Amino acid sequence: MPSLLNYDDYRTRARSVLPRGLFEYIDRGTEDENALRYLRRGFDRVMLMPSVLAGAPVPELSTPLFGRVSALPIAIAPTALAGMVWHDGEIELARAAARCGIPFCVATQSITTIERIRAGAPDANLWFQLYVWNDVSLSYALIRRARASGVRTLVVTADTPVPLNREYNARNGFTVPFRCSVPGMLDLARHPRWVARVLLPLLATSGVPRYGHYPSGLEGNVMRASASAVGLKRSLDWQDIVELRQRWDGELIVKGIVNVEDARRAAQLGVDGIVVSVHGGRNLDPQPGPIDVLPRIAEAVGGRMTIMADSGVRRGTDILKYLALGAQMVLVGRAGLYGLASGGEAGAVAMIGMLRNEMETAMALLGKGRPADIQLFSLS
Ligand SMILES: Cc1cc2nc3c(=O)[nH]c(=O)nc-3n(C[C@H](O)[C@H](O)[C@H](O)COP(=O)(O)O)c2cc1C
């Protein structure tokens, strides 16, 4: 991807190739979209303090995690509907992650099933993200499928008990479930290449796109509301985490924590890790970002479990900031999708390579070999 030099270039490419409704579903936030602005401001308030004449320490970005080594302190975050961004998008992302030596987290709401992703990317370190359904017995059956596909790391999303207020999607016609609307149909007509490369192959192989993991008969397709048995469990609580802990013999991660008390509770229940996350600014609009809360959470539970972070990463230096504030691993959501939209597996590999280069350059300028040694300087 020689002409794509930074995140914004990939984002611009994605905007041109994807239908507007799909692009905005990926790109935007909720309600007044304050969270997106606040995330950026949070990163911009924190500077990295260089040490000069440091003797060129070799940057060490490989990261031990759950008994394996990840080549970079990056994992690809779970994102619903990646299979609509590129044909077999989830498989392409899994292959890209495997080529880069990093984990890929498969979403409950992916188009492609975990079994097909495993078959398409046998070497990938696959994690599985769980949205707990109203009928929890169906969720337990789903995690057994994930385990049988070689998944050891289960990521339970805790910050989404209800559907979100995405007003722009109501306007641009990209609603989930999808509905035929005039803006939606015009949008498709303006993106014939996406229709030919992504939509038509999907229609030809599996009909109207479906959420791959929904039990047969309950999922309908992405144009029909799911049955209530597979609706998000609104009453999700810590007892669900206890039950999942008993049923899952691999690593259990809770995603979507910003409150230090919640982090403590997770640690007490024997959870192996948390993702400090505001869901990429796509859920509750007014809430503190990971930048604000990471140091407190790291102080409270660091050493007792693995702390990861995500939301708002646009540069390698954003990743370094999360790491310097106490995260051991950083998840990227939109970055992976924009790489995917720009060139499938190769585009996602190029995007991750770009983030790696940005991190290595910054570490050389900072005179540090390890992200954990980086000093921060906060602007008041
Ligand atoms: C299009 C899209 C779909 C997403 N779907 C899910 C999902 O199904 N489950 C989940 O836990 N998080 C989901 N997320 C949130 C990501 O896992 C992650 O927290 C977020 O994207 C990180 O922010 P970033 O996109 O700024 O890197 C989604 C994010 C995007 C952009």
From TrEMBL:
Cofactor(s) for this UniProt protein: FMN
Q: Name one GO biological process term.
A: aerobic respiration
Q: Does the keyword Cell cycle apply?
A: no
GO-annotated molecular function: FMN binding; L-lactate dehydrogenase (NAD+) activity
Question: Residues that bind FMN, according to the entry?
Answer: 78-80, 129, 157, 255, 277, 310-314, 333-334
Give me the residues that bind glyoxylate, please.
Answer: 25, 131, 166, 279, 282
Q: Write out the transmembrane intervals.
A: none
The answer on whether this UniProt entry bears the keyword Membrane reads: no
UniProt cross-references to Pfam families, sorted A to Z = FMN_dh
Q: Tell me which InterPro entries the record gives.
A: Aldolase_TIM, Alpha-hydoxy_acid_DH_FMN, FMN-dep_DH, FMN_HAD
Q: What is this protein called?
A: Alpha-hydroxy-acid oxidizing protein
